[in-house]
Design a protein that fits this description.
This protein is an alpha/beta fold and 435 residues long. It is built from 14 helices and 15 strands.
Amino acid sequence: MTRYDDALPQFAALVKELMGQEAVYDHLFLRDAAGKLTFITLKHVPEDDIARLCERAKKLIPWVERDSPVAKLEHLFDESLSDPAAASPELINHQDFHGWVRVVERRIVGQDWLRAPLTPIPDAPPVVVFASQKGGVGRSTALAVAANALSQQGRNLLVLDLDLEAPGLGGMLLSELPSYGTLDYFVEAGASEIDGKFLDDLIAPSRLAGPGLIHVAPAVGQVGNANPQNVLGKIARAYVEKVDPDGKTVSFLDQTRELVRRLCERYRYDAVFVDARAGLNEATAASILGLGAEILLFGVDTPQTFVSYRYFLAHLARFRPERSDEDDWRYRFRMVQGKAQADPEAHARFRTQTFDLFSDTLYDTEEGIDEEAFNFDYDDSTAPHYAWPILNDTNYAEFDPLAKNEQFAFHLYDRTFGPFIAALCDKIGLKNETL
Protein backbone atom coordinates (compact mmCIF):
# COMPACT_ATOMS: atom_id res chain seq x y z
CA MET A 1 0.00 0.00 0.00
CA THR A 2 1.23 3.49 -0.84
CA ARG A 3 1.91 5.73 2.15
CA TYR A 4 1.63 9.51 2.43
CA ASP A 5 5.36 10.21 2.08
CA ASP A 6 5.63 8.14 -1.12
CA ALA A 7 2.46 9.27 -2.88
CA LEU A 8 3.63 12.56 -4.44
CA PRO A 9 7.04 11.25 -5.62
CA GLN A 10 5.44 8.16 -7.12
CA PHE A 11 2.71 10.19 -8.80
CA ALA A 12 5.34 12.54 -10.25
CA ALA A 13 7.32 9.52 -11.47
CA LEU A 14 4.21 8.22 -13.24
CA VAL A 15 3.66 11.58 -14.98
CA LYS A 16 7.30 11.64 -16.08
CA GLU A 17 7.12 8.07 -17.41
CA LEU A 18 3.91 8.55 -19.36
CA MET A 19 4.06 12.20 -20.39
CA GLY A 20 7.69 13.29 -20.09
CA GLN A 21 9.76 15.35 -17.66
CA GLU A 22 8.40 18.72 -18.82
CA ALA A 23 4.84 17.67 -18.05
CA VAL A 24 5.69 17.28 -14.37
CA TYR A 25 6.28 21.04 -14.04
CA ASP A 26 3.97 22.28 -16.79
CA HIS A 27 0.97 21.12 -14.75
CA LEU A 28 0.37 20.89 -11.01
CA PHE A 29 -0.62 18.59 -8.19
CA LEU A 30 -3.49 19.43 -5.85
CA ARG A 31 -3.39 17.90 -2.37
CA ASP A 32 -6.72 18.30 -0.59
CA ALA A 33 -7.41 18.73 3.12
CA ALA A 34 -7.50 14.95 3.58
CA GLY A 35 -4.12 14.59 1.86
CA LYS A 36 -5.41 13.03 -1.38
CA LEU A 37 -3.69 14.02 -4.63
CA THR A 38 -5.11 15.06 -8.00
CA PHE A 39 -2.99 15.87 -11.04
CA ILE A 40 -4.38 19.05 -12.65
CA THR A 41 -3.68 19.61 -16.34
CA LEU A 42 -3.22 23.29 -17.18
CA LYS A 43 -2.56 22.76 -20.89
CA HIS A 44 -3.92 20.42 -23.53
CA VAL A 45 -3.11 16.77 -22.89
CA PRO A 46 -4.26 13.99 -25.26
CA GLU A 47 -7.18 12.01 -23.87
CA ASP A 48 -5.27 8.74 -24.30
CA ASP A 49 -2.48 10.05 -22.04
CA ILE A 50 -5.00 11.11 -19.41
CA ALA A 51 -6.71 7.73 -19.52
CA ARG A 52 -3.41 5.85 -19.09
CA LEU A 53 -2.35 8.08 -16.20
CA CYS A 54 -5.73 7.65 -14.47
CA GLU A 55 -5.46 3.88 -14.70
CA ARG A 56 -1.86 3.69 -13.50
CA ALA A 57 -2.47 6.19 -10.69
CA LYS A 58 -5.02 3.91 -9.05
CA LYS A 59 -2.17 1.96 -7.52
CA LEU A 60 -1.53 5.03 -5.33
CA ILE A 61 -4.87 4.69 -3.53
CA PRO A 62 -5.66 5.78 -0.80
CA TRP A 63 -3.54 8.90 -1.45
CA VAL A 64 -5.09 9.78 -4.80
CA GLU A 65 -8.72 10.53 -5.60
CA ARG A 66 -10.21 7.13 -6.41
CA ASP A 67 -12.58 8.35 -9.11
CA SER A 68 -10.62 11.27 -10.55
CA PRO A 69 -6.84 11.15 -9.97
CA VAL A 70 -6.42 13.41 -13.04
CA ALA A 71 -8.61 16.43 -13.75
CA LYS A 72 -8.76 19.27 -16.22
CA LEU A 73 -8.67 22.76 -14.78
CA GLU A 74 -12.11 23.66 -16.13
CA HIS A 75 -13.67 20.75 -14.26
CA LEU A 76 -12.68 22.05 -10.81
CA PHE A 77 -14.60 25.34 -10.72
CA ASP A 78 -11.65 26.93 -8.93
CA GLU A 79 -10.33 29.96 -10.81
CA SER A 80 -7.46 30.41 -8.35
CA LEU A 81 -5.73 27.32 -9.76
CA SER A 82 -5.20 29.09 -13.09
CA ASP A 83 -2.81 31.51 -11.37
CA PRO A 84 0.76 30.11 -11.52
CA ALA A 85 1.44 31.69 -8.11
CA ALA A 86 -1.23 29.43 -6.56
CA ALA A 87 1.19 26.51 -6.66
CA SER A 88 4.41 26.34 -4.66
CA PRO A 89 7.49 24.80 -6.30
CA GLU A 90 8.59 21.80 -4.28
CA LEU A 91 11.87 19.94 -4.70
CA ILE A 92 11.38 16.18 -4.35
CA ASN A 93 14.41 14.07 -3.47
CA HIS A 94 13.07 10.53 -3.37
CA GLN A 95 14.19 7.16 -4.65
CA ASP A 96 11.31 7.18 -7.15
CA PHE A 97 11.62 10.78 -8.34
CA HIS A 98 14.06 13.67 -8.11
CA GLY A 99 13.12 17.12 -9.34
CA TRP A 100 10.76 20.06 -9.00
CA VAL A 101 6.99 19.83 -8.98
CA ARG A 102 4.27 22.41 -8.40
CA VAL A 103 1.89 21.71 -5.54
CA VAL A 104 -1.28 23.40 -4.30
CA GLU A 105 -2.08 22.48 -0.70
CA ARG A 106 -5.52 22.65 0.86
CA ARG A 107 -5.49 22.47 4.65
CA ILE A 108 -7.98 22.92 7.42
CA VAL A 109 -5.22 24.25 9.69
CA GLY A 110 -1.66 25.36 9.02
CA GLN A 111 -2.38 27.44 5.92
CA ASP A 112 0.20 30.05 6.89
CA TRP A 113 2.93 27.44 6.57
CA LEU A 114 2.13 27.26 2.85
CA ARG A 115 3.20 30.84 2.22
CA ALA A 116 6.70 31.76 1.13
CA PRO A 117 8.60 34.07 3.51
CA LEU A 118 7.40 37.64 3.05
CA THR A 119 9.52 40.72 2.51
CA PRO A 120 10.17 43.21 5.35
CA ILE A 121 7.31 45.45 6.47
CA PRO A 122 7.58 48.80 4.64
CA ASP A 123 8.86 51.69 6.77
CA ALA A 124 9.28 49.45 9.83
CA PRO A 125 12.61 49.15 11.67
CA PRO A 126 14.54 45.87 11.59
CA VAL A 127 12.52 43.01 13.09
CA VAL A 128 14.35 40.16 14.83
CA VAL A 129 12.56 36.92 15.64
CA PHE A 130 13.97 34.82 18.48
CA ALA A 131 12.84 31.31 17.55
CA SER A 132 13.47 27.76 18.70
CA GLN A 133 12.06 24.29 18.23
CA LYS A 134 12.34 23.44 21.92
CA GLY A 135 11.96 25.42 25.12
CA GLY A 136 14.72 25.86 27.69
CA VAL A 137 17.41 26.95 25.20
CA GLY A 138 17.86 30.48 26.55
CA ARG A 139 15.88 32.21 23.79
CA SER A 140 13.82 34.60 25.94
CA THR A 141 16.76 35.35 28.23
CA ALA A 142 18.91 36.34 25.26
CA LEU A 143 16.12 38.56 23.95
CA ALA A 144 15.72 40.35 27.28
CA VAL A 145 19.45 40.89 27.78
CA ALA A 146 19.91 42.13 24.20
CA ALA A 147 16.96 44.52 24.51
CA ASN A 148 18.38 45.96 27.71
CA ALA A 149 21.87 46.30 26.22
CA LEU A 150 20.55 48.22 23.22
CA SER A 151 18.42 50.45 25.44
CA GLN A 152 21.56 51.26 27.45
CA GLN A 153 22.98 52.57 24.18
CA GLY A 154 19.97 54.88 23.77
CA ARG A 155 18.07 52.64 21.36
CA ASN A 156 14.29 52.36 21.48
CA LEU A 157 13.00 48.80 21.34
CA LEU A 158 9.61 47.20 20.86
CA VAL A 159 9.41 43.71 22.36
CA LEU A 160 6.48 41.46 21.39
CA ASP A 161 5.58 38.22 23.12
CA LEU A 162 3.97 35.94 20.52
CA ASP A 163 4.42 32.83 22.65
CA LEU A 164 0.71 32.91 23.46
CA GLU A 165 0.61 29.49 25.08
CA ALA A 166 3.64 29.97 27.33
CA PRO A 167 3.83 33.72 28.00
CA GLY A 168 6.87 34.95 29.88
CA LEU A 169 8.24 38.28 28.70
CA GLY A 170 5.66 40.33 30.60
CA GLY A 171 6.68 38.92 33.97
CA MET A 172 10.33 39.11 32.97
CA LEU A 173 10.47 42.77 31.89
CA LEU A 174 7.45 44.56 33.35
CA SER A 175 6.70 45.45 36.95
CA GLU A 176 3.22 46.57 35.80
CA LEU A 177 1.45 44.99 32.87
CA PRO A 178 -0.59 46.94 30.30
CA SER A 179 -4.34 46.40 30.25
CA TYR A 180 -4.22 43.95 27.37
CA GLY A 181 -1.77 41.59 25.67
CA THR A 182 -1.14 40.29 22.19
CA LEU A 183 -3.54 37.43 22.90
CA ASP A 184 -6.32 40.00 23.33
CA TYR A 185 -5.36 41.65 20.05
CA PHE A 186 -5.88 38.47 18.03
CA VAL A 187 -9.18 37.70 19.74
CA GLU A 188 -10.59 41.22 19.46
CA ALA A 189 -9.37 41.73 15.88
CA GLY A 190 -11.55 38.82 14.87
CA ALA A 191 -14.67 40.59 16.17
CA SER A 192 -14.18 44.31 15.56
CA GLU A 193 -11.83 47.01 14.33
CA ILE A 194 -8.86 47.76 16.57
CA ASP A 195 -8.49 51.46 17.39
CA GLY A 196 -5.45 53.42 18.50
CA LYS A 197 -6.39 53.38 22.19
CA PHE A 198 -6.48 49.60 22.23
CA LEU A 199 -3.02 49.51 20.65
CA ASP A 200 -1.72 51.89 23.33
CA ASP A 201 -3.24 49.62 25.97
CA LEU A 202 -1.21 46.69 24.58
CA ILE A 203 2.19 48.07 25.54
CA ALA A 204 3.94 49.22 28.70
CA PRO A 205 7.44 50.62 29.27
CA SER A 206 9.97 48.47 31.10
CA ARG A 207 11.64 50.10 34.07
CA LEU A 208 14.68 47.93 33.26
CA ALA A 209 15.47 50.04 30.20
CA GLY A 210 18.42 52.39 29.96
CA PRO A 211 18.39 55.82 28.32
CA GLY A 212 16.43 54.27 25.47
CA LEU A 213 12.93 52.82 25.77
CA ILE A 214 11.81 49.23 25.92
CA HIS A 215 8.12 48.99 25.10
CA VAL A 216 6.77 45.53 25.88
CA ALA A 217 3.63 43.97 24.43
CA PRO A 218 3.17 40.89 26.64
CA ALA A 219 1.02 37.93 25.64
CA VAL A 220 -1.39 38.49 28.55
CA GLY A 221 -2.22 41.79 30.25
CA GLN A 222 -3.91 42.88 33.45
CA VAL A 223 -7.39 42.03 32.19
CA GLY A 224 -6.30 38.50 31.34
CA ASN A 225 -4.70 38.04 34.75
CA ALA A 226 -7.90 39.29 36.39
CA ASN A 227 -9.90 36.76 34.37
CA PRO A 228 -7.63 33.71 34.14
CA GLN A 229 -10.57 31.41 33.41
CA ASN A 230 -10.85 33.03 29.98
CA VAL A 231 -7.24 32.62 28.82
CA LEU A 232 -7.61 29.11 27.39
CA GLY A 233 -10.79 30.16 25.61
CA LYS A 234 -8.94 33.09 24.05
CA ILE A 235 -6.09 30.85 22.90
CA ALA A 236 -8.62 28.56 21.21
CA ARG A 237 -9.92 31.54 19.22
CA ALA A 238 -6.70 33.49 18.61
CA TYR A 239 -5.65 31.53 15.54
CA VAL A 240 -9.04 31.64 13.81
CA GLU A 241 -9.01 33.33 10.41
CA LYS A 242 -11.22 36.38 9.94
CA VAL A 243 -12.80 37.93 6.85
CA ASP A 244 -12.26 41.61 6.08
CA PRO A 245 -15.00 43.93 4.69
CA ASP A 246 -13.91 43.06 1.14
CA GLY A 247 -14.45 39.37 1.77
CA LYS A 248 -10.73 38.56 1.88
CA THR A 249 -9.54 35.97 4.36
CA VAL A 250 -7.12 37.38 6.92
CA SER A 251 -4.97 34.71 8.55
CA PHE A 252 -3.07 34.77 11.82
CA LEU A 253 0.06 35.65 9.85
CA ASP A 254 -1.67 38.63 8.23
CA GLN A 255 -2.94 39.83 11.60
CA THR A 256 0.54 39.54 13.12
CA ARG A 257 2.10 41.55 10.31
CA GLU A 258 -0.60 44.20 10.71
CA LEU A 259 -0.03 44.38 14.47
CA VAL A 260 3.69 45.04 14.03
CA ARG A 261 3.05 47.58 11.27
CA ARG A 262 0.52 49.56 13.31
CA LEU A 263 2.60 49.62 16.49
CA CYS A 264 5.64 50.82 14.54
CA GLU A 265 3.56 53.62 13.06
CA ARG A 266 2.68 54.93 16.52
CA TYR A 267 6.19 55.08 18.00
CA ARG A 268 9.74 55.41 16.71
CA TYR A 269 11.66 52.22 17.32
CA ASP A 270 15.19 51.27 16.31
CA ALA A 271 14.36 47.57 16.31
CA VAL A 272 11.55 45.14 17.07
CA PHE A 273 12.28 41.93 18.98
CA VAL A 274 9.74 39.10 18.74
CA ASP A 275 9.68 36.12 21.07
CA ALA A 276 8.25 33.33 18.90
CA ARG A 277 6.33 30.29 20.02
CA ALA A 278 8.58 27.25 20.24
CA GLY A 279 7.74 24.47 17.80
CA LEU A 280 5.77 24.48 14.58
CA ASN A 281 2.35 25.94 15.34
CA GLU A 282 0.56 28.85 13.65
CA ALA A 283 2.23 31.50 15.78
CA THR A 284 5.62 30.20 14.67
CA ALA A 285 4.66 30.52 11.00
CA ALA A 286 3.46 34.08 11.52
CA SER A 287 6.70 35.13 13.20
CA ILE A 288 9.14 33.38 10.89
CA LEU A 289 7.37 33.75 7.54
CA GLY A 290 5.23 36.84 7.96
CA LEU A 291 7.44 39.66 9.19
CA GLY A 292 10.36 39.75 6.75
CA ALA A 293 12.49 39.48 9.86
CA GLU A 294 15.98 38.40 10.77
CA ILE A 295 15.46 34.92 12.19
CA LEU A 296 17.61 33.64 15.04
CA LEU A 297 17.28 29.87 15.41
CA PHE A 298 18.23 28.90 18.95
CA GLY A 299 19.30 25.39 19.82
CA VAL A 300 21.45 23.39 22.20
CA ASP A 301 23.78 20.54 21.34
CA THR A 302 21.29 17.68 21.67
CA PRO A 303 19.88 15.27 19.05
CA GLN A 304 16.40 16.76 19.53
CA THR A 305 17.60 20.14 18.26
CA PHE A 306 18.72 18.81 14.90
CA VAL A 307 15.83 16.41 14.37
CA SER A 308 13.22 19.12 14.91
CA TYR A 309 15.09 21.73 12.84
CA ARG A 310 15.36 19.23 9.98
CA TYR A 311 11.57 19.01 9.80
CA PHE A 312 11.34 22.80 9.84
CA LEU A 313 14.06 23.63 7.30
CA ALA A 314 13.07 20.82 4.96
CA HIS A 315 9.62 22.41 4.75
CA LEU A 316 11.09 25.85 4.03
CA ALA A 317 13.24 24.32 1.29
CA ARG A 318 10.17 24.18 -0.95
CA PHE A 319 10.34 27.99 -1.15
CA ARG A 320 13.97 28.14 -2.26
CA PRO A 321 14.26 30.69 -5.08
CA GLU A 322 15.60 29.44 -8.38
CA ARG A 323 18.37 32.05 -8.29
CA SER A 324 19.86 33.66 -5.22
CA ASP A 325 20.27 37.43 -4.89
CA GLU A 326 20.82 39.95 -2.09
CA ASP A 327 17.10 39.85 -1.25
CA ASP A 328 17.06 36.06 -0.85
CA TRP A 329 15.13 35.37 2.37
CA ARG A 330 17.58 32.62 3.31
CA TYR A 331 20.21 35.25 4.20
CA ARG A 332 17.99 36.32 7.09
CA PHE A 333 18.51 33.06 9.02
CA ARG A 334 21.20 32.46 11.63
CA MET A 335 21.77 29.63 14.08
CA VAL A 336 22.47 30.46 17.74
CA GLN A 337 24.03 27.89 20.05
CA GLY A 338 22.51 28.37 23.48
CA LYS A 339 24.09 27.17 26.72
CA ALA A 340 27.32 26.46 24.86
CA GLN A 341 30.48 25.18 26.44
CA ALA A 342 33.59 27.38 26.43
CA ASP A 343 35.28 24.85 24.20
CA PRO A 344 36.19 25.39 20.52
CA GLU A 345 35.80 21.67 19.85
CA ALA A 346 32.24 21.75 21.19
CA HIS A 347 31.48 24.74 18.94
CA ALA A 348 32.94 22.89 15.95
CA ARG A 349 30.87 19.80 16.73
CA PHE A 350 27.71 21.90 16.79
CA ARG A 351 28.74 23.63 13.57
CA THR A 352 29.28 20.32 11.81
CA GLN A 353 25.72 19.34 12.54
CA THR A 354 24.26 22.71 11.51
CA PHE A 355 26.34 22.66 8.31
CA ASP A 356 24.95 19.24 7.41
CA LEU A 357 21.47 20.46 8.30
CA PHE A 358 21.57 23.50 6.02
CA SER A 359 23.37 21.62 3.24
CA ASP A 360 20.57 19.06 3.20
CA THR A 361 17.82 21.69 3.16
CA LEU A 362 18.37 25.38 2.31
CA TYR A 363 21.80 25.48 0.66
CA ASP A 364 22.13 25.09 -3.12
CA THR A 365 24.29 21.99 -3.38
CA GLU A 366 23.09 20.41 -6.63
CA GLU A 367 25.62 19.67 -9.34
CA GLY A 368 26.18 22.43 -11.85
CA ILE A 369 25.20 25.37 -9.63
CA ASP A 370 26.72 28.72 -10.53
CA GLU A 371 28.77 31.14 -8.45
CA GLU A 372 25.63 33.05 -7.41
CA ALA A 373 24.21 30.01 -5.66
CA PHE A 374 23.28 30.19 -2.01
CA ASN A 375 26.09 28.08 -0.61
CA PHE A 376 28.84 28.47 1.98
CA ASP A 377 32.03 26.84 3.16
CA TYR A 378 32.03 25.09 6.51
CA ASP A 379 34.21 27.80 8.15
CA ASP A 380 32.46 30.81 6.58
CA SER A 381 31.53 32.96 9.60
CA THR A 382 28.89 34.81 7.56
CA ALA A 383 26.95 31.62 6.83
CA PRO A 384 23.57 30.87 8.44
CA HIS A 385 24.88 27.56 9.79
CA TYR A 386 27.83 29.23 11.55
CA ALA A 387 26.25 29.52 15.00
CA TRP A 388 26.71 32.42 17.36
CA PRO A 389 27.51 30.84 20.74
CA ILE A 390 26.03 32.01 24.03
CA LEU A 391 27.96 30.41 26.86
CA ASN A 392 26.29 28.47 29.63
CA ASP A 393 26.35 30.74 32.68
CA THR A 394 24.95 29.79 36.08
CA ASN A 395 24.34 33.49 36.78
CA TYR A 396 21.46 33.26 34.30
CA ALA A 397 20.13 29.85 35.27
CA GLU A 398 17.36 31.56 37.26
CA PHE A 399 16.69 34.64 35.19
CA ASP A 400 14.61 37.24 37.03
CA PRO A 401 15.94 40.73 36.26
CA LEU A 402 13.12 42.50 38.12
CA ALA A 403 14.30 40.86 41.34
CA LYS A 404 17.97 40.56 40.34
CA ASN A 405 18.75 43.76 38.49
CA GLU A 406 22.45 42.90 38.51
CA GLN A 407 21.72 40.33 35.77
CA PHE A 408 21.62 43.32 33.44
CA ALA A 409 24.94 44.70 34.69
CA PHE A 410 27.39 45.09 31.81
CA HIS A 411 30.31 43.44 33.60
CA LEU A 412 28.15 40.36 34.22
CA TYR A 413 26.35 39.90 30.91
CA ASP A 414 29.18 40.97 28.62
CA ARG A 415 31.26 37.82 29.09
CA THR A 416 28.24 35.65 28.28
CA PHE A 417 26.19 37.70 25.83
CA GLY A 418 28.67 40.32 24.60
CA PRO A 419 29.70 38.56 21.34
CA PHE A 420 26.08 37.67 20.62
CA ILE A 421 24.92 41.27 21.08
CA ALA A 422 27.75 42.59 18.91
CA ALA A 423 26.88 40.13 16.12
CA LEU A 424 23.19 40.97 16.39
CA CYS A 425 23.85 44.72 16.14
CA ASP A 426 25.93 44.12 13.05
CA LYS A 427 23.23 41.96 11.46
CA ILE A 428 20.51 44.59 11.85
CA GLY A 429 22.74 47.54 11.00
CA LEU A 430 22.98 49.16 14.44
CA LYS A 431 26.34 50.36 15.71
CA ASN A 432 27.28 48.59 18.92
CA GLU A 433 28.35 51.44 21.21
CA THR A 434 29.95 49.05 23.74
CA LEU A 435 32.69 47.98 21.35
